[in-house]
Structures are given as C-alpha cells and as structure tokens.
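Observation: inputs received (chain + adenosine-5'-triphosphate).
Thought: call the complex predictor directly.
Action: predict_structure
Action Input:
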Amino acid sequence: MPNPNYTVLARKYRPMGFDEMVGQKAVVQTLQNGIRSGRIAQAYLFSGTRGVGKTTAARILAKALNCEKGPTPTPCGVCPFCTAIQEDRLVDVIEIDGASNNGIDNIRDLRELVQYKAMQSRYRVIIIDEVHQVSKPAFNALLKTLEEPPEKTIFVFATTELQKVPVTIVSRCQYFEFKRVSVKEITAHLVDIARREGLTLTETGFGLLARAADGSIRDSLTLLDQAVAFCGKTVDDQDLSLILGTINRDLLFEFSAAVIAGEPGRIFPLVEKVIDAGYDLRTFHKKLIEHFRDLLIVRTTVRPQELLSIGEADLAVFRAEAGKAGEEDLLRFLQALQSGEASMKYSSQPQIAFETLLVRMCHFHKLIELKDVIAGLDEASPAGNAGPVRPVAAGGQGAGPFGTRRPFSGAGTAPSASPKSPPASPPAKSKPYENAPSPPRPKVREEAGAPSGGSGKENALRFSNVRLFQDKLKARVVSVEETRPPRPENEE
Ligand SMILES: Nc1ncnc2c1ncn2[C@@H]1O[C@H](COP(=O)(O)OP(=O)(O)OP(=O)(O)O)[C@@H](O)[C@H]1O
Ligand SMILES: [Mg+2]
Ligand SMILES: [Zn+2]
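Observation:
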C-alpha cells in the first residue's frame, strides 16, 4: 500500500536557504551580494537543465526579499513571510507555469495585477517557469511590462532552453546560468540524505546514482526514491544497476549490434521491445546517443575506462562491440543520432521518427556522399591526372565530413554508381569506410579483359558520359561546389 504521507525526497529536501544549495556557487554568491548591497534587479533570468535549483533559487530569493529580517541574503525561514512562501501561500509570490499559461490573455491578466502594489509583503515576486514556452504575442506584452516596471515587483524567469527566449527579454534581465552539478557534489548530497533517512548504500551505489542523474540533483533524488521503493532501506548494488538500466544496457547493445551489422529488419521489433519495457522513447534515444559515444570512446582512446568510469568486465563488452565498427562509422552513427534528436522531440510520431532514423543508420554502409561521387568522377576524368580507374585516396585533401573520404571506385563503375550498387571491392560490410589506405581494388575493365586505359574511342565515349553526368550533378550541388577549393589558374 502506498503511504499517502510519503513525501518524495526531492520535495522533502528542497533547500530552504542559499547556503543549502549544492553547487551553483557563482549564482548564489552574486544573488546574495546583490541583496546585501541593495542592488535588486527588476527581472532575473535563470537558465539551466532540469532539476538544478532554478525554482528553488527563485523561491529563496523571494524569501530573502520579503523576510521580516530582510531584505537579507540569509532569510530566517521562520517568520510569517518565510513560512508562507515555503508553504506556497503568500499571495504576493506567484508561480506561473509558462507552459500552460503561455497566451496573451494570461500575460494581460498579469499586467493588470502588477498595476497594484503588493498586498502584504515588501516585494511582489512573479516567477514564470519554462518561460520559453510563452507565445510570441504574450512575450511582447511581457516586454511592455518590463519596460515600465511596476513598483516593487520582481520577475524571475526560469528556462531550460535559453536559446528560445527572445533576446529582447534576455537583455532586460539579470542573467544567471545554472550549471549541471558534478558527480562528486551529487554523491556528497546523496550520502547526506541517505544518512538522514537511515538508508544504506555502498560507495559504488552512490556513484551509480550520481552518474545516472547526469548533473541533475532532482533526478538523483528521484532515482534514490525508486531504489528504496524497490529494495527497501538497504540498497544492494546489483539491484541498483538493474533499476538504473542493466536491462536497458543490454537493449542498447542490441540496437548498436543491429546498426553496426546493417540489419534494418532487426530495428522494428527492438523498438517494440523498448516500448514494451516501458521506456520513454526520447529518453531511450538519449541513452542510445550516450551508448554510441561510449563505443566511440572505447574505439578511439587508449584508456577509455578513465573516461567512462566502467569496470574491466564492462569494458570488454564495449571493446568487442566497438571493434566491429570503424571509427568513422561510429562517428557517423553518433552524428546521425544527435541530429535526429530534434526531429524526435518535435515529431507527433516519435516512434516512427526513431525507427526511420535507425533504419537509415543501418543503410549507412551503402550510402556514398554525393560530393564523394563528384570527387571520384573528377579524379577519374582525363582532366584530372589520375588514371581512369583509381579510387579516391582515403584521408586525402578535401576530406569528407569526418576528415577522410570514403573510397570510391573510379570511372569503371562511376556513371552507374547508385547508392544501391554493390561496391566494386570485396564485400566490406562492417568496415566500409576504412581509414587506412585502401588496398588496390579489382579494376573492372581489366577484369573484362581490356587494358586499364581502354581503347581511344571507347575511352572518349566513356569520359564524355562521365563529364555529362558530372556536370549534371554539379549543377545540383551548388553548395558542395562552393566548398571546393578553386582550381589553380593555369589549369584548363
Ligand atoms: N542546487 C541544488 N541543491 C540542492 N538541491 C537541489 C538543487 N537543485 C535541485 N535540487 C533538488 O531538486 C528539487 C527540484 O529543484 P528545482 O525545482 O529547483 O529544479 P529546477 O532547476 O527548477 O528544475 P526544472 O527545470 O525541472 O523546473 C529540489 O526540491 C531539490 O530537492
Ligand atoms: Mg523549476
Ligand atoms: Zn524570514
């Protein structure tokens, strides 16, 4: 039976004063100095990721301004004003959720309200959370309010997405950036709370929680809540890693295996599995990004365990998986996942967006970038000094998006080189974009019994086709052309 009186840890341990805030030293110090010296801004803007103390700091600021003993950088916490704010019942301290009150009417109401002086307290404090969600007309109305500041009214805007707040608003605020809290500080905070709650965890357990929280104190406390709900007051490491996602990790490996092997058919059932397991797709997507990052780190660095803080056994699993893919492949996968994040976020069908992205990734080994096609054609044509059949050297000049060019087998196959055509080289499914210089490729025309140069007439025909094809492509890919280095003057 759930205990109706149970208060979640994150709420129970909301800091009451600035001195209780973990991390955010610069923010706290600047706010306190401002209050101490009477330099109180008309509007404050707090930005930072979820659960790092923005709302908490806004409320402490409201107390600091209104405390019976204040304005003071250290509100007492026991006077009628402090307690009323703590209990969320001081009429002059208003918290508005910008996400659900984002219309012009809401802001008009607010403007109406601020025409009158605060009723009971020294300062009226209006906290607008998730302010980036406020609509454009509402922002404009808000701007007017900020331009004719009502007396003794302070605005505190909080946002997790600073870039979405109009600069006109930002420039009228005193701006504070809340940082992600370090693993060390979160760990210390968790240790303290566990002690107060009579919970037992190992050092490893605390570390696991703190890392999983990814800089957010609220997340760390929510995870601790979950762990206690699952294990009781003594939290076992193995149970903990189960809760934090060992299952999750196996699933992540299933995904990376499917993508690396280039098997799109495995994606759909896997996505179903994620949904069945009850994971939020966007969260899982984020985890997948981290997973590919970890694989890349394992693939590229000498001592990955220091960066990833994982044990030897885990490292072996990562090594095995990362070893199946080239460094460039992993980088490409990671980049695709990252740029897919926005479309996941705004898609009305995140599942489809997720599936499409992953299926596309499975096909990466077959795709050649258009500009590489053009580059290959350039080198293959008589104008270029290359022989008729020469792969574009990997890692050469005019490197591709990851500093190297993927091999492209020259003129012999070029005109028909569609993404679907198989590579001229032996099947190189798992390592298509080798970093190392490519081994000599079988020359198509030689195989057909013709000398590599081909007869004069044949070559002329072939090259004119190549030219045509090339010109067409170039006409379409203006932007790619623009990025190419100019030809030397003396060249035709
Ligand atoms: N810097 C911090 N020090 C101590 N506890 C914190 C801190 N930041 C967050 N917490 C804990 O997390 C809870 C939520 O914090 P808060 O509401 O201030 O986060 P927020 O930054 O406003 O998040 P959101 O962007 O989701 O609104 C607090 O009640 C507290 O338990
Ligand atoms: Mg908040
Ligand atoms: Zn007080």
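Thought: report the result.
Final Answer: Residues 54-55, 129, 158 surround magnesium ion (ligand 2) (CB under 6 Å). The first strand starts at residue 43 and ends at 47.
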